[in-house]
Specification:
This protein is of the alpha+beta class. The chain has 2 domains: 31 residues; 130 residues. It contains 1 helix and 12 strands. Strands 1, 2, 5, 6, 9, 10 and 11 form a 7-stranded mixed beta sheet that branches. Strands 4-3-7-8-12 form a 5-stranded mixed beta sheet, with no helix packed on it. Strand 1 and strand 2 form a beta hairpin. The chain is elongated and about 80 Å long.
Length: 167
Amino acid sequence: MDVFMRDKIKNAVIIALIVTALLYIPVRLVYFRLYPGDRIKGELRLFIDGQEYPLDKEDITYEYEHEKTDGEINDGEISLKAGEYGQYLIILTPPQDIPPITISVLQGNWWNKESFDLSIKVDTERGSITYVGEQSYITEYGFTKSEEISKSRLLSDEELFIGLGSL
């Protein structure tokens, strides 16, 4: 192979890398803004005194800015369209005289995608509730950020509330 041909191949590789970079960066910044699916998704499990309590649509209501909104649950998987900036509430109404449990998901931007995997453990004997899991969301530049969730409260607290989402 002569020198001229090596230079052509080298130039072609450099051009291909530049074109790939120029396409990758804008696609990464735009993709999540054009995302057509549900923008809030989560796995939610409720345990009462060590026993898993299956959640269904009668146990959960959804709110956006203090108004009811549509959401779905199927085998513990929650999804909301959530295409607006603001606070979305997922309100669980457990059995056995346990007060309602509110999960607040803050959509820091209209285009953000939030996901979570959350286990809520209620111990009626001790009068406590524990939230354990993980959440992830898209940052301003299109990268996914994950955070651990671990919080405990007393069932006697005025409001059983956990906040998720990005700012």
